[in-house]
Amino acid sequence: MHIVHILKGKANPETMNGVNKAVHGMATGETNQGHHVEVWGITASVDDARKDAYNYKLRLFSQSVFRVAVSREMKRAIAELDRNTWIQFHSVFVPEFPSIAHMVRKRGLHYGVTTHGGYAPAVLSKDHLRKCLYIALRERPYVAGASLVQAVGRSEIKDILAMSPHARVELIPNGQDRDLLAGIEVPRMEAEHPVIGYCGRLDMQTKGLDHLINGFSIYKSEGGRGQLWMVGDGADRAAVERMATDGGVQSDVKFFGSMSGTAKLRVLSNFDAFIHTSRREALPTACLEAASLGTPLIVSRETNLADCVEEAGAGIALDETSADGVSRALGRVQALYKDNQLQSMGRNARLLIEKRFSWEGNARSFVAAIEAASHAT
Q: Are residues 88 and 135 in the same domain?
């Protein structure tokens, strides 16, 4: 089958952008299974030195000054597609996508949309009036024309159906490479007390970093001995650092900034537990990455991972997404660390990736879903 994934970006697996990482993983998995896969990225710069490193074909198209317009190169590429091609758009509220989708429909081709959490109520509430107009004129027809809409997290399903009640929705989660550390030597730090780690955008509201820092402060005030390491950057970094200072825990919170590749993996491999306190998510790729390294997870219900983490014995689900909930979870981590029980949770986390979140398995599920959707419409 010929599959074309279209996104805003370059499908760079080293980025902090979860959509780019997910597209790269899915395309790689599909190619490994013998499918003809291309990734088309719309970007301000069409130069990319990594193109030849991928097992699929990466094509980059210049972003038009008028974002709703389709570039001449993109029009030519669509005209050259054969009738057995499936187009999958990644993300929503991208001005180019409805225009491209219209051209795809005119060619008689099927397309799908992966929303990546873009229809969550908190997203729709931002710039609400402008979004309502855009939805009515462009977004709703774009989604309604899709033969399939992919949800990567269970909480997305109701949001998708609220946007397009008759959508054919398939729950196919993000995946993860199980061999991230292949060929990489990672010196292991022997610590007397646990290192709890976070990796991702420093986005206070979305990622619940106020809960994380305030919860860590409570944990420390109650005798907690662990450290908090934070990998990543973002607009709220200064505010997060200030919150750590105000809470009196600045000496126990280490900010690494943005990292990628081997350097990032070496830091992540020294986490005793990985924490994600998000208020909303589709399905965070950073959690899957940590689990594949054999690190137990501490997650909020809003990550869409809590149930499977609990069922697999792969970590701890917050009993509530709040500072107090974080403090209680960190207290449990410290007790488990003292009793040498975190290692077994880490092994279970890696098994969870192999059984439920491998790119190989999820790519098979995706191909089966689009084949069924193609024949049904």
A: yes
- Dihedral in degrees, nearest 10, Cα atoms 352, 355, 360, 364: -130
- Same domain? For 105 and 200 the reply is no
In a domain, 341, yes or no: yes
Does the structure show a pLDDT above 80 at 310? Answer: yes
b/e burial code for range 216-239 (CB count within 10 A of at least 16 → b): bbbbbeeebebbbbbbbbbebbee
What's the maximum distance between 2 C-alpha atoms anywhere in the chain? 65
- Residue 370 shares a structural domain with residue 315: no
pTM of the model: 0.90
Regarding whether 282 and 370 lie in a shared domain, the answer is: no
- 23 in the same domain as 125: yes
Q: Which domain holds residue 302?
A: 195-356
Assess whether pLDDT exceeds 70 at residue 294. yes
> Is 261 in the same domain as 136?
no
Please give the residue that has the higher pLDDT: either 126 or 291: 291
CATH number at residue 139: 3.40.50.2000
Residue 86 · residue 111 · CB < 8 Å? yes
pLDDT in tens, 70-122: 899 999 999 999 999 999 999 999 999 999 999 999 999 999 999 999 999 98
* DSSP result, 300-314: -GGGT-HHHHHHHT-
If phi > 0 it is left, if psi is from -120 to 50 it is alpha, else beta; for residue 32 that is: alpha
Question: Which stretches does DSSP call E strand in 178-337?
Answer: 195-199, 227-231, 253-257, 273-276, 297-299, 315-317
Give residue-wise pLDDT tens across range 257-282: 999 888 898 899 999 999 999 999 99
Burial of 66 (C-beta count, 10 Å sphere; 0-12/13-18/19+): exposed
Count of domains forming the chain: 2
Q: Is residue 366 part of a domain?
A: yes
Q: How far apart are CA 161 and CA 112, in angstroms?
A: 15
Confidence at 1, pLDDT banded by 50, 70, 90: confident
